[in-house]
Design a protein that fits this description.
Layout lengths: L5 H10 L29 E6 L6 H11 L1 E7 L4 H14 L4 E6 L10 H15 L3 E4 L2 H4 L17 H9 L4 E3 L18 H6 L12 H14 L5 E3 H4 L5 H10 L3 E4 L4 H5 L2 H10 L4 E2 L8 H12 L26 H16 L2
Parallel strand pairs: 1-2, 2-3, 3-4, 4-5, 5-6, 6-7, 7-8
Helix pairs in contact: 4-6
The protein binds zinc ion.
């Protein structure tokens, strides 16, 4: 065999841009495999996790009609009178197509009787026809009391709130913590480096409570309030580790999970994800957590319904990580439950 000569190496490296910046790297796949564009979901779908406060209901409806979305659940990020205004705006526009989740109100945390007031607010949301209430990740990461103490997720003063939610059959959604990578240094080993570099404030390293600790606090609530229904947004924040979610669902029959903004994670582990969907088809909710757009919905359908390989996942403007996803070709009965029936169970109160 002839030795590789220096002249050849020189020629090749001269042509390649060896100093290409990672942010400029945009490889085009040469893979030639079947692709299926799914324009409408195979069955009517309920988007159980979205944020529509800033959207025009009529425009959202048009997108829903184009894609086969029967209902959209708006998790309002407003509190107080504004939350009720948002609820009315969407209900007035189309009462059967929009539902509203309330947002736990911490604004008067330092006031007297705050915990009792939280229970009373809950009752008002139920009366007004909201369909659930969400507790966000500021609990456990940033919310502090007057004395400077960080609030714990499992703070026992919240117990009457969870008990009341159980009595009123009103689901409580938790979004506690975030992806694993957000709790690690933003360095060259971080698999979501580009996303975190674009949004450094999304990183929590080093946090007061570790992610494991935050989830442990959250999970203890499910056991303490077995008669209350909980929805863990974003696959309980453990889409990187479906064995964790499996155990969580096995141990807590009162817990559901939504898949909002986690198609990227699920689609890069298609064998594990498919098995997970088949096993927990009664407990998984379709949700997107992305601004309603036709292409965004279609990518979700392609992921859930087809066996397509190596395609872009739906995402915000900034990508979550540098990988492609694979479809998990769910059978019809599973699709019907995930798209619609599980959500209807929670909406019917
Ligand atoms: Zn969300």
């Amino acid at each position: 065999m002839e030795p590789i000569n220096d002249k050849f190496i020189e020629m090749v490296t001269a042509k390649a841009e060896v100093d290409l910046r990672i942010s400029d790297f945009a490889p085009v796949s040469m893979l030639n495999v079947p692709t299926h564009e799914i324009s409408r979901s195979k069955f009517p779908a309920i988007d159980y996790h979205n944020h529509l406060d800033a959207q025009n209901p009529g425009e959202v409806l048009q997108i829903m009609d184009d894609c086969g979305i029967e209902k959209c659940v708006n998790i309002t990020m407003q509190t107080g009178e504004k939350a009720f205004e948002i609820h009315r705006k969407f209900k007035d526009s189309s009462p059967d197509r929009f539902e509203t989740y309330a947002w736990f109100d911490w604004t008067d945390l330092d006031s007297e009787n705050f915990w009792q007031k939280s229970v009373e607010r809950l009752e008002k949301y139920v009366e007004a026809g909201f369909c659930g209430i969400k507790i966000w990740k500021d609990l456990g990461l940033t919310l502090r009391e007057k004395n400077g103490e960080l609030l714990r997720v499992d703070d026992e003063r919240l117990a009457p709130f969870f008990e009341k939610a159980g009595v009123l059959n009103f689901p409580v959604m938790f979004h506690i913590s975030d992806p694993d990578a957000f709790f690690l240094p933003i360095d060259r080993f971080n698999e979501r480096f580009e996303e975190l570099a674009a949004h450094p404030d999304w990183g929590f390293y080093p946090s007061h409570f570790s992610k494991d600790e935050l989830l442990m606090q959250r999970d203890s609530i499910f056991k303490r309030h077995p008669k209350t229904t909980f929805v863990c947004a974003h696959l309980a924040e453990k889409s990187e580790n479906l064995a964790y979610v499996t155990q969580l669902l096995d141990e807590n029959p009162n817990v559901f999970v939504d898949i909002g903004a986690r198609t990227a994670e699920l689609g890069r582990q298609p064998y594990t994800a498919r098995e997970f969907f088949l096993k927990y088809s009664d407990r998984i909710l379709f949700g997107t957590d992305l601004v309603p757009e036709i292409e965004m919905y279609r990518l979700h359908f392609r992921f859930l319904e087809t066996a397509d390989e190596y395609f872009d996942y739906p995402s915000h403007a900034s990508r979550q990580g540098r990988w492609q996803i694979y479809g998990i070709y769910l059978p019809d009965d599973v699709l019907q439950k995930v798209y619609r029936e599980n959500a209807l169970k929670l909406l019917k109160r």
